[in-house]
Design goal:
CATH class of the domain at 8-172: Mainly Beta
Strand order of the largest sheet: 1-2-8-3-6-9
Radius of gyration: 19 Å
Number of helices: 10
CATH superfamily of the domain at 8-172: Regulatory protein AraC
Shape: globular
Distance between the termini: 43 Å
Largest sheet: 6 strands, antiparallel
Number of strands: 9
Strand content: 15-25%
CATH topology of the domain at 8-172: Jelly Rolls
Length: 298
Amino acid sequence: MRALREMDVVGKEELVLAAGRVQVGRFRCSLAHPLFRDSGPIQNFLLAFPRNSVEITHAGGKPIVSDPTRAMLYNRGQEYRRAAISPDGDRCDWFAFEREDVAEAVAAASARGPRSEDRPLPLAQGPVDADLYLRQRSLFEEAASATPDALRVEEGALLVLQRTVRAALRVEGAAPERHLDRSRRKRVAAVQEAIATRFGDRLTLADLARIAACSSFHLARIFRAQTGSTIHAHLTQLRLRAAMERLEPRTDLAGLSFELGFSSHSHFTSAFRRAFGATPSAVRDRRRDLRTSIASSR
């Protein structure tokens, strides 16, 4: 058996910024680390935004394919377990809030308000559209910068909380087929896991239907019912969010578009701009300028 590299045994929780009533942090845990399967109950009221894919099961709940298209919602004291999907283990950024702020966000999004005073977050997950994804990523990057504006981060995080809770509650009650039977949920989860680890491949509906062990028509229907998204839209969003992760000052954009499975550089650029309101080159150059500014200020 090969010797473990240093990155293979990472298990690190880091507080990036405390900004008033909000805390911002990140969690990185490799598959080989003892904390991967169970890192203990959640210590805060938390929104976690995955940077890769991992299976999360809340105590008493069903397994969830947690990937960059969704946010995971945790009440304080929530127990849960992880299972591997990505070889990178679990990588996420998180925003922690006071109970009163979470309860107000739920009350603003739902006529009946929180179902429990101690556990105001009523759901384990919610969808993250491209605008919300970009907002929370930009907010995290500011929080982690050399000179963060704490007030702007605090206010921005509360807006992220409001939008995340609203989206989760809206999707929960949107479709009568949202709660599919166990066999259909397993088929959808199998396809989500396949896409999470193979989003750079040129996958066809027939490929995915074979994984799900059902017809293409049936898969397309139950995937929409369970996730609120088409398979193609889900795949495209995972590719675009992977692109956002990999944009570095010297990134070869043509090579990146091919690696992520886009048909051409121009297709990648147009899809990225539609999702995030800027081209990949603009985001890459902005990050290069930010790093240059941070380095010169030291």
